[in-house]
Fold these 2 entries.
Entry 1:
Amino acid sequence: MNDLSDSSQHEPVTPDALLHTGAGGDITAEDLVLASGRDINPQNLAWAERKLAAEGPAALDKLLP
């Protein structure tokens, strides 16, 4: 029978930073367009640039689950 209180059988906890897939650098308009499922074209890039200017990096967080 396994003793769940025995910590030697538990794997270490994964650090929070490894659980998230956030970009390591700046978010670009192209990143935002791709995350939204839109085609990369001048109109969509302009939309993404406006959205990034207004919302910053949070714009990407709002699109992703």
Entry 2:
Amino acid sequence: MNDSLKARSLRLDDLLRSRSRRSTRNEGSTKDEQVYERIFSAIIAHRLRPGDRLPEDALAETFEVSRTVIRKVLQRLAHERLVNIQAKRGAMVSKPTVEEARNVFAARRLIETGVMDQVVDRLTPAALEELRELTRAEDRALEAGNQRLALQLSGEFHQRLLDVAGNEELSTFLAQLLSRSSLIIAVYGPGWKGASHCESHTVLLNELEAGNVDALRQTMGEHLDELEAALNMEAVDADLPDFKRIFNGILD
């Protein structure tokens, strides 16, 4: 990865962590917050994959914290539906079912098409340029063969587009849906290709600049339909991940 893409990746990690806090209290930089951010980012970036087991003892050893801290973090992630905790089986990264995947995209269609009039009304030149820069960064990531970063930038594009509407409740809900979408693509879209999605983002921005609400709604709906249709709906099994390799056993 070149230096500009490395910088973009680091910036995106910050954005992802910021987005995750919208539905939680500001908890400072405590150990449990640091562990939460590391695991959250690993899930969203697909370093931890759906179905990966998350044993408390192994994570506690990796992060050099107590199992109580790990338990608190896992419960928080479970509340956000990124982790599933089962009696006697422990915690694992959530693996959305086909029905859950369909429901997530149905919810996204309702939200992301429904607020286009508010987005048009509140759009500023600075917001439009930020969205165009996200699309350019996504295109650069694709050219560099970095599908993971392109997928993350794609999700950030959708989040920032909705943020323009100024509806904090819908922005928070979409952040949760985007996190779920990342898991869904990890399970059902291992061959995800972002080129056509990046092109759709450019079309959306051109329609946004023109103020064409009806066209925006139609293009957004078709864009989400295309993304859902690309999923193969076949789950994969996963072994216990190598936590020390993923997290390097270090907390800041």
